[in-house]
Amino acid sequence: MDPAIKPASRSFEDATPLLAEPAELRRVAAEKGYLFFKRFFAREEIMEMRELLLGVLQQEGLLDAGSPLLDGIGHLPLINKLTPEEINWNGIGTTQRVYHNVQKLQEFHAFAHHAKLLAMFGVLFGERAFPHPRNIARIMLPSESLKVTPPHQDFLHIQGSADTWTCWAPMGDVPRSLGGLSLLEGSNQAGLLGVTAAEGAGGLETILCNLGYEWAEGDYEAGDMVIFHSLTVHKALPNRQPGRVRLSLDLRYQPASQPIEQASLLPHGPFEWDELYEGWTREDLKYYWKRESFVFLPFDESIRWQKDKIC
């Protein structure tokens, strides 16, 4: 840890009461760069999604057959046979084969269109929220080869509108010991920071020096979620529960009127929408972004390595 960054000393505060005060919600969001919501989703719907995701692992033999499915206990003999390249593929904590099957789940993509999420982001943005179709599932298998996601800002990877926000929702109970998400409170106000190459999801680590911000974190229960601005520095905590799988979703939203980068409309992974859509029954979830009139911003690779941003 950078000695200039203080250890976590802030606990999450529930932002749910702010939903009734839009102006205050936006003020706090701009100040902190994130908002935490306690029991935002019904526990039952989270556990249904958890069962679907764990079912994919079960089909591949990656769960312990002697444990209840919802416990998410990995089959370590098989997991330990996976190469570091397989376990760290695309930063999602599992193999490409498993992730392909997850990306084909209609229910997984439908979750991004949850009415409560769209309404909440509508309040935050003060206009209609557009959900990016490039939904991400983190299926973090328990493996010593798995690299922990380093501190980073999402904007470097997604670009488009800086006012893009991510919803990080654990699919099950995720205490800090299982590797939840930690956020550098207020770091969104520091602008785009310099980076260095690093292992873990994204392959880049934000350089943190003399910022004076504090890490905020907490123990998540099924139904909790945290949302954060694209410039908010965040990281994953290490999984210290041997054998346990950690599941979470990354879902991104932006004001519908703002520009977007083309890749945000592609699947997450080397997949094609037509192939992922096979067997889907909800036509409203397919290519819904084609009904929008976006201004597209090109991806700028150069901003990743701005030397004057490095202290």
Structural description of this entry:
With 311 residues, the protein is α+β, with helices and mostly antiparallel strands. It has one domain (6-270): Jelly Rolls (Sandwich). The protein has nine helices and twelve strands. The protein has helices at residues 22-32, 43-59, 76-79, 84-87, 96-103, 106-110, 115-125, 155-158, 273-276; strands at residues 6-11, 34-37, 129-131, 136-140, 165-170, 181-185, 195-197, 204-206, 214-217, 225-229, 234-236, 246-255. The strands form three sheets. Strands 2, 3, 4, 5, 10 and 12 form a six-stranded antiparallel sheet that branches. The protein has a four-stranded mixed sheet with strand order 1-9-6-11, with no helix packed on it. Strands 7-8 form a two-stranded antiparallel ribbon. A hairpin with a 6-residue loop joins strand 7 and strand 8. The protein is globular and about 50 Å long. The model is unreliable at 1-7 (pLDDT under 50). One of its GO terms (molecular function) is 2-oxoglutarate-dependent dioxygenase activity. It comes from Paenibacillus rhizovicinus. This is Phytanoyl-CoA dioxygenase family protein. Pfam families: PhyH.
